[in-house]
Amino acid sequence: MPRTDPRVDAYIAKAAPFARPVLTHLRKVVHAAVPGVEETLKWGMPHFMHGGILCGFAAFKAHCAFHVRGAEPLLGEAARDDAMGQFGRITAVSDLPPRATLTKLLRAAAERIEAKAKAPRAARKAPRPEAKVPPDLAASLKRNARARTTFEGFSPSRRREYVEWIVEAKSGETRARRLAQAIAWMAEGKARNWKYERC
């Protein structure tokens, strides 16, 4: 039994007289091609759901439009772009491809949605190892209890920000300056990028 939505009935009933047979035909083709598809309204237009948007149609003053998710590669040069969707301005059922072609497109779109749903999710990346504290930073932290307490209370990623900032200095002078700044900020309880954090 098709899973219809009375709002789609109302949409078709309100459409212009030329559009009603087109929309009714498309609705029947969709339900026959992909049994169990669910009707809904999205953006004020009828759509058919099958684990995601499968297709949708719309009626305008002088034409209808029909869109099948991902049909462009299958249609190739037959795809039209003179209206919304891949089938151009549809004013009669005869403007549509044959029922067998539409069925093939709809089933292919449904298979793509199903395959995507079954695809395994990428495994989470392993967390980065704890940053190795360089000797000069360790010595400075040892001499400043407030900075050491702040550093030890940081998450591994926040500790890494300070370590990398100091280690990546290109000269000894820059490294010394960064080290002094890091100790001063941590003594105040500040993270490396405190200036960019929301209060």
What would you say this structure looks like, in words?
The protein is α+β, with helices and mostly antiparallel strands and 199 residues long. It contains 8 helices and 4 strands, in the order H-H-E-E-E-E-H-H-H-H-H-H. The chain has helices spanning 6-14, 19-33, 72-75, 99-118, 135-143, 145-153, 156-167, 172-187, and strands at 38-42, 45-49, 53-59, 64-68.
List the helices and strands and how they pair.
Elements: H1 6-14, H2 19-33, E1 38-42, E2 45-49, E3 53-59, E4 64-68, H3 72-75, H4 99-118, H5 135-143, H6 145-153, H7 156-167, H8 172-187
Antiparallel strand pairs: 1-2, 2-3, 3-4
Based on CA inertia axes, which overall geometry fits? rod-shaped
Instruction: Return the CATH class of the largest domain.
Output: Alpha Beta
CATH architecture of the largest domain: Alpha-Beta Complex
Number of strands: 4
The number of distinct structural domains comes to 2
Keywords:
alpha+beta; 199 residues; Aspartate Aminotransferase, domain 1; single chain; 4-stranded antiparallel sheet; rod-shaped
Summarize the structure.
It contains 8 helices and 4 strands. The protein is an alpha+beta fold and 199 residues long.
